[in-house]
Amino acid sequence: MGIKGVNLRPEDAFQPGRFLAALFEHLGLTDDGRVVLRILRRSIDARARNVVVKFKVDVIPADQAPWHAPDRQYRNVRTARRAIIVGAGPAGLFAALRLIELGIKPILVERGKDVRARRKDLAAINKEQVVNPESNYCFGEGGAGTYSDGKLYTRSKKRGDVQRILEILTAHGAPEEILFDAHPHIGTNKLPNVVAQLRETILTAGGEIHFETKMADVSLNGDAMQGIVTRNGDRLEAAAVLLSAGHSARDVFQLLDRRQIQIEAKPFALGVRIEHPQALIDRIQYHCGDSRGEFLPASSYAVVQQAIVKGTSRGVFSFCMCPGGFMVPAATAPGEVVINGMSPSRRNSKYANSGIVVAVEEKDFMEFAEFGPLAGMEFQAAIERKACKAAGGRQQAPAQRLIDFMENRISTTLPDSSYQPGLAAADFRDVLPEFIIESLRQGFRAFGEKMKGYLTNEAVMVGVESRTSSPVRIPRDASTLQHPQIKGLYPCGEGAGYAGGIVSAAMDGERCAEAIARQFGVAVDKPANQ
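Given the sequence above, the corresponding structure tokens read:
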């Protein structure tokens, strides 16, 4: 409904209950309990001098319970037919829930620890610069997103499918605002509890979850899956294995290649993370003075530019922008430095950071051609090792003030930063290939023209932002979703090359779960994500 001239207080825009109460009064509706207002969408429009918060609101009968996700039937599957899921990220967790809905018992194996136990290993990498290869910001319950933000924005056009995922998350403790915010976000402080509740639902229904259980091999009978072999030598048997190991599971890619199970190199993106004072980004985006005020949330940005390097056009774009956030060490092995970003739910840090990355094509890593389909992965790893060496060999990260980078100067000082292990002044020409350096320079120059004040030495570049997506694709049949060589193997999620975030990975997990059900002869009357 379109309503103009509604006189609401600024604070009401960010308190859904207060907003609805004020709007209810403005519309002159009778408070008889028969009609309620439902927020369908909330967005912030900061294009003009006056910032506007826009709402799309529906008036519906009260018995439709607009603020609650529909009840879902998670039947008891303790004695049901089994399917194995490798990886407890969003693809794996939502696949497990969908299997339960379809009457199949999920056996979920996760190399890392549960969300609570992971915290000690994250503290170790931040404070002591010690990387646990099995438990870190990428590996563990909930996957890479659990302790690195919880952004739920997706470019998927299937809004019904997205809504289903958001409703399941709210039913497990996520804030109701994710159901209508234009760019929904849970926050790294709240997402662990949501993940723990998802786990509890799976276990209560009779599913199994095995933490600190790493797949070491696959068990085959000819060209058909029989199950997996764990690092401890245990054999888990099932005719279907859903492989959702994540974009950083290099040992899984190596295992498939060694077993001559077809995988493919694929394009990805690589670059740096840039951090500004949040107040500076607020001034640019909100056209405000020294403060955005007490009601507006920390502002974000999205930028994209086409760079031309040696006659080749390359995309340069922002990735995983974290307003009011922190930079974190996302390495999965000693000897490498990888940077990621995260924001707590309140987005109240004094820093704003975003990945600024460059499109990398297969022709760019031809010097690693000897590694076949793992060439992109080896290119990625080589840059991460250079970053580690340039910053001193531990988890300090190489850094350069933005203007210094543009003018080929090593920074003599570095600004305060949210990155807890610390920064070390470095020359990014020692870390990144020339085509990425030149692409970034062109991109930053263009971003500075679009956002006056962005190109400043108050900003610091930190490297490297390299785990934007998987450098490997595991092929699958478009209709059955099974690997073309191996019956019963279902590549899934970001690690297999079929998703790009929490929501898209969750949707892909549901699709693969339904494909497994069809393999088992179970009817799927209403597909969740087709």
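The chain is about 25% helix and 25% strand. Try to locate this feature in the token string yourself.
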